[in-house]
Amino acid sequence: MKNLGELLARSWLDKTFLNLDTLNAKDIPSTRKEAFEAQNFFYQSINKKTVGWKIGAVAKEVQEEEGYDGPVPGKIFEDTFLRINTNIDFNDIPHSNLECEYALQFLKDSKIDNELDKDLNQIKLFTAIDITSTRYEQTSKDKFDRLIQMYLSIADHGNGGRIIIGDEITDWQKKDLNNVKIKFDVNGDKSEPYFTGKKRIHPLKSLKAFIEEFKNHNIQVKANDYLLCGSLIHPYKIKKNDYIKIEYEGLNKFEVKIK
Length: 259
Fold this sequence. Notes:
Layout: H1 2-14, H2 32-46, E1 50-56, H3 60-66, E2 72-77, E3 81-82, E4 85-88, E5 97-106, E6 110-111, E7 123-132, H4 138-142, H5 146-155, E8 162-168, E9 182-186, E10 189-191, H6 203-214, E11 220-221, E12 226-228, E13 236-237, E14 243-248, E15 252-258
Parallel strand pairs: 1-12, 3-8, 4-15
Antiparallel strand pairs: 1-2, 5-7, 5-12, 5-13, 6-11, 7-8, 9-10, 9-14, 14-15
Helix pairs in contact: 1-2, 2-5
């Protein structure tokens, strides 16, 4: 897994693409354990400051649809944070999707264990945008089954890309977060693509999934680290020259221009 992690890091740093056809079979993760091994080699090799985590595909219904064996976690880098209203170079976000999410923020250093979600006064909540991206050549990744593709995504730090943190949601524990409507406007085409029902994941459920994933790994979150909690909408595939306006009804607005 060392080879895969190091090659992915080099691809991100050089803004190139990794053709999986050039790798040996032993370099492709076939288990969740191997996927995290490759991810750890990626972090060691890229050597960038991290400021938290993201976790996707938390809903069991999504996992079953996609053929996954669990959620897709990864760290987030400090240099990927953008302003609420921002311009993004399309070449910097290859094969990208935009997802509307909630982001938890931890106010103190804490071990990731079953105590992490007990004192919610030490956790803030924000609106957020996650722009996922990858440095795999997609045709070389698409030949694998969905489970192996998920392992490859974990190795690629959970499909990391760009992060936008919005406004803090005050008194968030008292709000009906799962019924907040999200309005989408892409180049004047308006929609409300938010999930409802079992696919709509409350941030505390994402936190519990995060704890379950890492509670036996002796890992800590640092004060002010974020946890992006998974998409609240059907992910939108970004195109060049998109002008995207997003409204979390009653909470926050974002504007993203793709150059």
